[in-house]
Design brief:
Blueprint lengths: L14 H33 L5 H4 L2 H30 L6 E8 L2 E6 L6 E4 L21 E4 L4 E7 L4 E5 L4 E5 L5 E5 L5 E7 L11 E7 L1 H11 L1
Helix pairs in contact: 1-3
Length: 227
């Protein structure tokens, strides 16, 4: 999860988030090089009094500064499209989890099992145990297995919500009357926090999401104790 005064992304816990972080670094380096070049040219124009007329009117220079931005845009667009298709690709899921947004809590349903559904409310600050996070803890965590493809079906029963877990690179809108789909897969166990990312009313900031990702063996034990 994020820590105070953090400037970058949270640590990636899924392959998609790792690809998004690589793309972010790739694009940021291109922006840094362009900004440095522009700043260098501006400083030269402000400090140099001589002007070379053949350079100012050369067709070669105009050709270069027309083609170069197009090449840079292609270098940004190709990896972006690759990640976009990776995020939309739906493989054969090992588990399906249905998520419904409400004002102001989430409800979850494991559609592969009968009668395994529950609501997840934020834990009030006065009921927090030592070490728990204010405004991020819930009374019922979502337990999921690691290293398995999980299909998320996300919708809403009242207004627009957005089911978001930054560490996993997942952000999907919950729209009334529409069922959105997302793929979730984690590379390591852990507890991952998220929040509703769509302004949905007075208590919008009190809709946390907590995922507890465990190995398959522990997930099966949790299922046996729950069912």
């Amino acid at each position: 999860m994020a820590y105070p005064a953090q400037l970058g992304f949270q640590d990636a816990a899924s392959p998609i988030m790792e690809e998004l972080m690589y793309f972010h670094d790739h694009t940021l380096m291109i922006v840094f090089l362009i900004s440095s070049l522009v700043l260098y040219i501006i400083s030269l124009m402000l400090t140099t009094e001589l002007t070379h007329t053949s350079t100012m009117d050369a067709q070669e220079v105009e050709t270069v500064w027309t083609i170069l931005p197009a090449v840079i845009l292609i270098l940004i667009a190709l990896p972006s499209l690759r990640i976009l298709y990776m995020m939309d690709e739906i493989t054969t899921p090992s588990l399906t989890l249905k998520t419904m947004g409400h004002q102001w809590y989430w409800s979850y349903e494991y559609t592969d099992y009968e009668s395994l559904c529950f609501d997840s409310y934020m834990t009030p600050p006065l009921e927090l145990d030592p070490g728990e996070l204010r405004l991020l803890e819930v009374d019922n965590r979502v337990v999921l297995p690691t290293e398995m493809s999980i299909r998320m079906l996300i919708s809403s029963e009242d207004v627009l919500h957005s089911w978001t877990v930054p560490s996993l690179g997942v952000k999907t809108d919950a729209i009334p009357g529409r069922l959105n789909q997302a793929t979730l897969m984690t590379s390591r166990p852990g507890i991952y926090y998220g929040q509703c990312s769509e302004i949905c009313g007075a208590n919008h900031s009190f809709m946390p999401i907590v995922l507890e990702l465990v190995p398959l063996k522990h997930f099966e034990e949790w299922l046996l104790s729950t069912l």
